[in-house]
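sorry to bug you again but im stuck and you know this stuff better than me. what follows is a protein written twice so to speak, once as letters and once as structure tokens for the fold. id like you to explain what the token line says about the fold, in plain words if possible. anything you notice is useful, everything is just below.
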Amino acid sequence: MPACAGMTETGQRVHCKESGMGLTEEVVNFVYRTRYKEVPPEVIRAAQGFVLDGLGVMLAGSTEKGSRIIQSYIRRLGGREEAGVIGAGFMVPAARAALANGVAGHAMDYDDTQLSTSKEAVYGLLTHPTVPVLAAVLAVGEACKVSGQDMLLAYILGVEVECRIADAMNPRHYQSGFHSTATMGGLGAVVAVGKLLNMKPEVLARALGISASMSSGLRENFGTMTKPLHAGRAAENGVTAAQLAAQGFTSATNILEAKRGFYSAMGGGYDEGKIAGRLGRPYFMQEPGISIKPYPSGSLSHPAQDLILDMVKQNDLHAEDIDSIEVGTNSNVPNALIYPMPKTSLEGKFSIPFCMAIGVLERKAGIAQFTDRKVRDPRVVEMMRRVTLVVDPELEALGYDQVRSRIRVRLKDGRTIEGRADVARGHPQKPMSWAEIGEKFRDCARLVLSRKDTEAAVELVANIERARSVFPLIRVLSGRSGEAAKKAATKKPGSRKWSGTRKR
């Protein structure tokens, strides 16, 4: 087997600035060597919140039409019953469960978002970090009957690697059309699965090389069912790549830094200083952080959504009072929020006019507002025509690390009301408490779970560190109960054998 030595095909060793080793080697060594007790308690606590949020959006998203299509598709394929499909009540091979749960987690565009370490980075370049990693970890965790600590550690390390890889990527990657959750989510997923399977560094390096070649996803598909498919495929690719590597499948072992490798091919380069020597120093969850979404829509709309809701309520504004609404932001926002007059709820998630219109008309922006019926409501359509999105020179000059937004509401009586927001609720500068995350989870879970099961899930995540197995949590989330659940719970460990057997 090839050594994980960070070598190019010409034999030239590629070094990272601080570690003195190839970047791929540094990543896999970090994952292999990190133990649960070494992770700071504040990272553990933050991760529990992100996991609860991720599970909530998977539950809610499992009811979406695109998710139902995926569930029907994988159910017809059949196969070994290794892992449960959240919100659906049946089991499939682990990779397909990761696909279904990853699609569900991104179906409402309600999942968390990674921040940036610099003003030069494009905010939208970065990933929705939790769903691809968590979907993969849940699937393999159930198949392997792992403990709560093992699951949480794998999730934390997967998110750390995914975020650092994304943060270092040349912004051209996103600007030219790649969806970074799709392309880099699989890299986080595969190292997380590798940690669960206790893969040695050289095996994990091969798994990373396989996953990198499976990376794809184009932003032109924003506003369609294919966008959440990106997250699902990233999770599935992570599981599949790990399965293959565990059985001896080969790949390049320097895939990140190689001349014809991931960074070069996908973005034309990367900023080594944003990843080399930075893994876990501090954890990305600590600095710059991850933002939990307050609204089920594209995150680049959220500061403006916060702001319009505040303006409407504080000034008691109504649609009949408003002549026009101008939303100013930086030039990368119109590049992602691409629907001036959406026709579906999926398009509405990427439409500033819809987000503004629904905020004015309903003074809310929750799951109930992002529906096809609301998008096509004549009152909403008429209000959207009064909204324009422009590039604000002052905000453009401040950089792209945050989605700063300015709103000018011109009233029919001649007055203008103006406001600015740099971050939205859920951002590390305006964080959600555990109680607030719990309320979001309950709002999502009510579409699928009973109140009893919802509260059980919250309690299980709150105590995940002490759980000997993640199976009770997954059983609740996947809707398996009664005789089916008893049957699954009493199976012997070898009765659902994992094709890449976990070693301890």
Observations:
- The radius of gyration is 22 Å.
